[in-house]
Amino acid sequence: MEISDEALCERVARRDDEALATLVARYQERAYRLAWSILRDAEEARDLSQDAFVRVWEAAGSFRGQAKFSTWFYRILVNLCLDHRRRQRWWRRLVGGSGPDSDSSEALVEKLPAPDPGPGAELGKDEMMQRVWAAVGRLSPQQRAAVVLHVQEELPTREIAAVLRCSEATVRVHLHRAVAALRQSVGRG
Amino acid sequence: MAGAHPENEIVPYLKGELTGADRERVGHHLEACPDCRQTAETVREVFDLLSRAMPVPPPLHRARYLAEVRERIEGRRPGGFVTWWRRPLPIGVSAALATAVLVLILQTGVRERGVVSDLGPYEEVVLGQRLQISEDSALLERLDLLEDLDVIRNLDGLAATRGS
């Protein structure tokens, strides 16, 4: 029978290196994908996902098992990513860089024709998919994290709230506002 | 149509997270409110688009991943091997570098705002004497750091409030 993540975490707290290796094997793809969805940079995603495992090694003793290991781990990872974004924004403002969060997907959206709001006219499906994910890149970090955890990781609202350390009501607001912004991007708002 | 629009509850309703009275209330509202029904349809469409077209990150090269995690852990151990670019600088050097960067940035910012002082050295000496700042050695020590002319221009007000 496969050992649970929680039991592995207990072993990591006792400095069991093989237990850490098993957790890394189980979560590295998800961690990298989640970090990349928030950061949209492969190198940063790799770095921060690895940092999250380092934090697991250092703080495994503080994991009490009150939440699932995955929730606890995602919280560590998402906080690392959000802190990283905040530092980047601060630094860009300080040196006079471009204003709001942006990534290369924004440039792609600028090249796409604006949606025609006329009756019967509709964006092509492919174009719409590109546009909506580009719009996700323009959400606030918390909204983006909520959307990614909901769509990609398929977490229930309760768990998203635990990861983001906020109330379920706040998560609902994040998702509602994110959807409102995304609706605009596909010409449905 | 009675009741406020349950905007923030449409997503959990569609996810099946609402139960009991809440689920009934939102369900009845959606039946009665065409706007909210349209909103729910759009939410469904947006999340459907998102889940069908999730961008795929560049592939993760797994071979070195665990080794790199172990290297990071080793690098954080006291006395552990740390690659030179990861070694923390001594605090004094870090503070000096941070101050230098801050001064450079503030200087650049001041020039870009076009507010570089036109005061010559003579005028600056006279201004300093009028403000009696030469008597405040602590302030003088900090003048090197006070590149922001807004602060210097406000010294008039500061001197007045200190009753000098």
Ordered list of secondary-structure elements with their pairings:
The complex is a heterodimer of chains A (189) and B (164).
Chain A lengths: L4 H9 L3 H23 L2 H18 L9 H26 L9 H8 L13 H12 L4 H11 L5 H8 L3 H18 L4
Helix pairs in contact in A: 1-2, 2-3, 2-4, 3-4, 4-8, 5-6, 6-9, 7-9, 8-9
Chain B lengths: L9 H5 L5 H13 L1 H19 L12 H12 L14 H22 L8 H11 L5 H7 L5 H5 L1 H7 L3
Helix pairs in contact in B: 2-3
Main beta-sheet strand count, sense and barrel state of chain B = none
Give me the CATH fold name of chain A: Rna Polymerase Sigma Factor, Chain: A
Q: Please give the CATH architecture of chain A.
A: Orthogonal Bundle
* C-alpha end-to-end distance of chain A: 50 Å
Q: What oligomeric state do the depicted chains represent?
A: heterodimer
| Gyration radius over CA of chain B | 32 Å
CATH evolutionary superfamily of chain A: RNA polymerase sigma factor, region 2, helix turn helix motif
Structural class computed from helices and strand pairing of chain B? mainly alpha
Low-pLDDT residue intervals, each spanning 5 or more residues of chain B = none
Strand proportion of chain A, as a percent range, falls in under 5%
| Helicity range of chain B | 55-70%
CATH secondary-structure class of chain A: Mainly Alpha
Separation, N- and C-terminal Cα atoms of chain B: 70 Å
